[in-house]
Predict the structure.
Amino acid sequence: MPIYEYRCNQCEKEFSELILNQREINKVRCKYCLSRNLTKLVSSFRVHQTEGARLANFDTSKPRSNDFYKDSRNIGLWAKKRMKELGVDLGPKMDEIVEKGRTGKILDDYNK
Ligand SMILES: [Zn+2]
């Protein structure tokens, strides 16, 4: 289950929220003051923790071998890392795109 961590911009408290589906992300409110003015911190999902380590060790300036892409978990990593370096946070939308790329669903969408 994905657990997202938030910091409330209103009362500055931090809390985590279990997100069962993407639609619930837009309904998240601060547990303390019910504010919707939140900053998403990290998604501490088991898979994403591993990915966090991968991202940290990943150097976008180095060329990648074909073997790199044989590991489907590396697909989208470059794009994510670059976004992070550029300070762009696409949030769950990016995760969704990357997840689709990894599972081959993007191809399914094109074939429809
Ligand atoms: Zn609050």
Summary: The chain has a mean pLDDT of 74.
